[in-house]
Amino acid sequence: SALHPLICALPKVEQHIHLEGALEPDLLFSLAAKHGIKLLADDAAFTSEQALRDRYLRFTSLDDFLGYYYIGMSVLRESVDFCELAWRYFQRAAKDGVRHAEVFFDPQAHLSRGIDYNTMLQGFVDAKKRAEDELHMSVNIIACFLRHLPVADSLAVFDNADVQASFRDGRVVGIGLDSSENDFPPVMFKEIYDKARDLNVRRTAHAGEEGPAQNIASALDNLGCQRIDHGLRLAEDPVLMKRVADEGFLLTLCPVSNILLRCVPSMKEVPIRKFLDAGVKFSLNSDDPAYFGAYILDTYCAVQEAHNLSVKDWETICTNGIQGSWCSDERKNELM
Ligand code: ES4
Ligand code: ZN
């Protein structure tokens, strides 16, 4: 595209990236070796980096992906492992022009393996500090709850003293809700989101990814979400779409993820133009870049190839992303 240089140079924010989803096969295998972890011997995908990458091109659903995602992250054990993972992501994101990143992690996926909350969080905080000092990025950390686990488990994690301390001192600025969407509607997590609101902790949730548009309304009404992760299926409900546009909620779209996980047939069917025309605000994000083979610049370019956006469209997308970020007004002005 003739706009490629402009797209490269855009000041980007990334707001929907699971740090565990940035675990590239090379780091996965080197950490497995370091810790003497034997990855599923009965799955041929784990025989080599190339076999694993090939398998990642054939995901059949969100749950198929999540199986690999949860096995992959089992190689993360020490603080330095979490730091290395996040630092590699920040360096790559900075190269793509990301100046502000709001990054997810899944505490329960590590707590359940006996990893201490402060062990994982310290690694991420160390990498954040380094990205801020050396790459001049700003970084916010968001803790996500896993919707496929019992709600009581999420509640116990939310109430945990170490987790509460990380909200109070701002190491973690917000909460999210991820993992399998079908069978786990947002309202199940209302109690946690009510508590988060009382503590002034920011709130988002995955909704309308593989689940219906109704989950988007529920995330707004029942959970008091301040933005929506994915929101792909908002386009199926014109009335809700008008409401989201009128009230200015931001969607953190992840089009490459949606294609790889078969939530949408191809980039052409991602309702980018529909959202732009309806005044629905959205940012473009990589979700799990190591698993979907695309970081944020790859994602922007793939969107441009399919949708042939104008300079004005790109300015709208980037401005809305910046304005929808959970940073200070002062920082937003620097990013503009
Ligand atoms: C995820 Cl693509 C996606 N959807 C839901 N939960 C997730 N966790 C990591 N990636
Ligand atoms: Zn996600």
Can you give a write-up of this model?
The chain is α/β, with parallel strands linked by helices. It has a single domain, classed as Alpha-Beta Barrel (TIM Barrel). 51% of the residues lie in helices and 14% in strands. It has helices at 4-9, 25-35, 49-56, 62-72, 79-95, 107-111, 117-135, 151-159, 161-168, 190-198, 214-221, 238-247, 255-260, 272-278, 289-292, 296-307, 311-323, 329-335, and strands at 12-18, 98-105, 138-146, 174-178, 202-207, 227-230, 250-253, 281-284. The two termini are 24 Å apart. Residues 18, 21, 62, 69, 178-179, 206, 209, 257, 287-288 line the site of 6-chloro-9H-purine (ES4).
Brief account:
This protein has 336 residues and is of the alpha/beta class.
Secondary structure elements and pairings:
Layout: H1 4-9, E1 12-18, H2 25-35, H3 49-56, H4 62-72, H5 79-95, E2 98-105, H6 107-111, H7 117-135, E3 138-146, H8 151-159, H9 161-168, E4 174-178, H10 190-198, E5 202-207, H11 214-221, E6 227-230, H12 238-247, E7 250-253, H13 255-260, H14 272-278, E8 281-284, H15 289-292, H16 296-307, H17 311-323, H18 329-335
Parallel strand pairs: 1-2, 2-3, 3-4, 4-5, 5-6, 6-7, 7-8
The structure holds 6-chloro-9H-purine (ES4) and zinc ion.
Residues 18, 21, 62, 69, 178-179, 206, 209, 257, 287-288 line the site of 6-chloro-9H-purine.
Query: Which H/E pattern describes the elements?
Result: HEHHHHEHHEHHEHEHEHEHHEHHHH
Helices and strands: which structural class?
A: alpha/beta
Write down how many β-strands occur, each being a DSSP E stretch of 2 or more residues: 8
Tell me the number of structural domains.
1
Backbone shape: globular
Report, as a whole number of angstroms, the end-to-end distance: 24 Å
Instruction: Kindly report the average pLDDT value.
Output: 97
CATH architecture: Alpha-Beta Barrel
Adjacency order of strands in the biggest sheet: 1-2-3-4-5-6-7-8
Work out the helix count: 18
Task: Characterize the biggest β-sheet.
Answer: 8 strands, parallel
* CATH topology-level fold name: TIM Barrel
Please tell me how large the radius of gyration is: 19 Å
Share of residues in strands:
5-15%
Helix percent band: 40-55%
Detail the poorly predicted runs. Answer: none
CATH superfamily: Metal-dependent hydrolases
Bound molecules: 6-chloro-9H-purine, zinc ion
CATH level-1 class: Alpha Beta
